Amino acid sequence: MDSVNNAVYGDITIGRVLTWTKQYTEDEVREFYALAGNPTDAIPEYLPYVLVMAPLTKVGSDLNHLANQMDWTASRPVRWDETITAELEVTRLEPTGGMSKISLEGRLRCGDEIVVQGRSSGFVIAD
Q1: What's the CATH number for 4-125?
Q2: Per-residue model confidence as pLDDT tens digits over 23-55
Q3: 11: region left, alpha or beta (phi > 0 left; psi from -120 to 50 alpha)
Q4: First to last CA, the chain
């Protein structure tokens, strides 16, 4: 079976699901709004899309994934106090020297509810 070794996740094979969970604190959300130049006295109920997607980006970064195509669909907004779990499932892996072609099915969950889903393809750089 084809596999790629990764410093964070170990052996990566087809069917492997990589996960990471994040719940933003009020201070983190305020800091984001301050960095963006927005008022921080009353933060909005819902997270900006970039913060919602950040857990998927974190998993991809840990995997050394360089995406050349991504397609994501959100089913609803996410409140800043919800716990978000990112899941990336490896659906294709073709090792070729220092890089491997990879395809991933991804989801973001709040509890049991999928709030974002989609796919990504590109390359992973061997550790």
Answers
A1: 3.10.129.10
A2: 999 999 999 999 999 888 888 999 999 999 999
A3: beta
A4: 19
